[in-house]
Design a protein that fits this description.
Blueprint (H helix, E strand, L loop, with lengths): L2 H20 L1
């Protein structure tokens, strides 16, 4: 896995966690 894919995956996870907190 390339670093940019890993960073993208992490950002998606963090975005999802914030979104879930908002709900």
């Amino acid at each position: 896995m390339t670093s940019w894919q890993k960073r993208k995956k992490i950002s998606i996870i963090s975005y999802t966690r914030e979104f879930n907190q908002f709900i």
